[in-house]
């Protein structure tokens, strides 16, 4: 595991190392994908970049970061995982470093298992992940009294992506959208909104943070001097406790309580955290009674927020409570189309968009992540973005979502499609009108179920696994030239997907 890297900037070192290595990592032909996103630049200890890590470790690190970003979402990733640096891999152990003791403890307590699991998928034999404070940080900072501030807590990046214009409205989110828009207009015009605070709630990944950022962007666009403060409830707590430890809560209080618009995201996080809730209650009160604006989000309604003090809940219920529900197919499809309209270089056929909208139903973050992954991998390997490629790239996501398809179902569909009986498919008959559909059914069984070749052979009248292998190969070859067969298979796959 030793290859030396040139002493270049961190992201270049990581990129170059992964680009230079030709060896595929595990089974994935897309091993570099983790380094495609600017989000994932860096993450490499400067000492490691000077030569102690090999290309496999670097590529695995890129993938681990990509997976964690898509699993945990940008907010959590940026706050806690983006600052991690890879400093070494040896003897089944991955060593990571962070800039402060506080962060090291936090990451250890909250993410160590997830990191270990993610690494083990890409570097066989990884048993342990160790998180240390980086040597440079120990010299430069006072970690115990000054916890890391991995991302700006004060003013959100206001991502231009997160605007009202880019938010696609459907039945499930129109109340929240209208409420957010009304509040933003009231803050900028000074006219009463008729409610304050605004409480947005809904399951993860459905656009609460997007709407908060959109409110903030609109307010700042109208009045760049407005004091807009956005922070997650987690960061509220971390900063408050740090201020308490440093015996200096005045600056913290002033910064939040003087906001014209204060937005606190994911408030469920402070459930059961008594002293933080106390502070939060006074902050809310001060903001509202001074006629300034408050927006709160949570993953559930105020009635269901267990562990949050009743005085906070009743304060929240005074305002407007707007829910966001899971998107239906139409909204999911429109969201994808809107995202694609902003990416003129991406050529994604409509059947792929429909497929994604049909398959990825849990939340918009996952939907967006799936689309980005297909596009990024397509660019990386230079493949046409069709349904086969999409299924290949998203195999893990689809597996998690899909119901179990059986060989019986495949046989039934194929038999119907070719106007045959199921018995024809498992019979010894070799006539072409039976043999070709049988090969199609075997091919689909191999592609769409986890069954092994011998198992599939057994289910087709006790045939040998080499017969199945031959069928799969033959259909793959024919699909490239026989358009009718290709169309049949696409139709069958769509039918089986539903
Ligand atoms: N209606 C929508 N139109 C366009 N993009 C959307 C929509 N809903 C969600 N998104 C996108 O989905 C992603 C996840 O949304 P967001 O982070 O706002 O979710 P959230 O509800 O705050 O999740 P969490 O509870 O995990 O914080 C973002 O990239 C956001 O832009």
TrEMBL record:
- Fetch the InterPro entries from UniProt: AAA+_ATPase, Chromosome_initiator_DnaA, Chromosome_initiator_DnaA-like, Chromosome_initiator_DnaA_CS, DnaA_C, DnaA_dom, DnaA_N_dom, DnaA_N_sf
Which positions bind ATP? Answer: 205, 207-209
Role summary: Plays an essential role in the initiation and regulation of chromosomal replication. ATP-DnaA binds to the origin of replication (oriC) to initiate formation of the DNA replication initiation complex once per cell cycle. Binds the DnaA box (a 9 base pair repeat at the origin) and separates the double-stranded (ds)DNA. Forms a right-handed helical filament on oriC DNA; dsDNA binds to the exterior of the filament while single-stranded (ss)DNA is stabiized in the filament's interior.
* Source species, domain of life: Bacteria
Q: Where is this region: Domain I, interacts with DnaA modulators?
A: 1-145
What is a single Pfam family found in this protein's UniProt entry?
DnaA_N
Query: Domain Chromosomal replication initiator DnaA C-terminal: where?
Result: 406-475
GO cellular component terms given for this protein: cytoplasm; plasma membrane
Subunit annotation: Oligomerizes as a right-handed, spiral filament on DNA at oriC.
Low complexity bias: start-end ranges: 9-23, 31-46
Family according to the record? Belongs to the DnaA family.
Q: Which residues form the AAA+ ATPase domain?
A: 194-323
Instruction: For this entry, list what GO says about its biological process.
Output: DNA replication initiation; regulation of DNA replication
- Region labeled Disordered — which residues? 1-47
Q: Which UniProt keywords apply?
A: ATP-binding, Cytoplasm, DNA replication, DNA-binding, Lipid-binding, Nucleotide-binding
Q: Name one GO molecular function term.
A: lipid binding
Q: Which residues form a coiled coil?
A: none
- What are the boundaries of the region Domain IV, binds dsDNA? 379-498
Write down what this protein is called: Chromosomal replication initiator protein DnaA
Instruction: List where in the cell it is found.
Output: Cytoplasm
Which PROSITE patterns does the record match to this protein?
DNAA
Domain comment, in the record's words?
Answer: Domain I is involved in oligomerization and binding regulators, domain II is flexibile and of varying length in different bacteria, domain III forms the AAA+ region, while domain IV binds dsDNA.
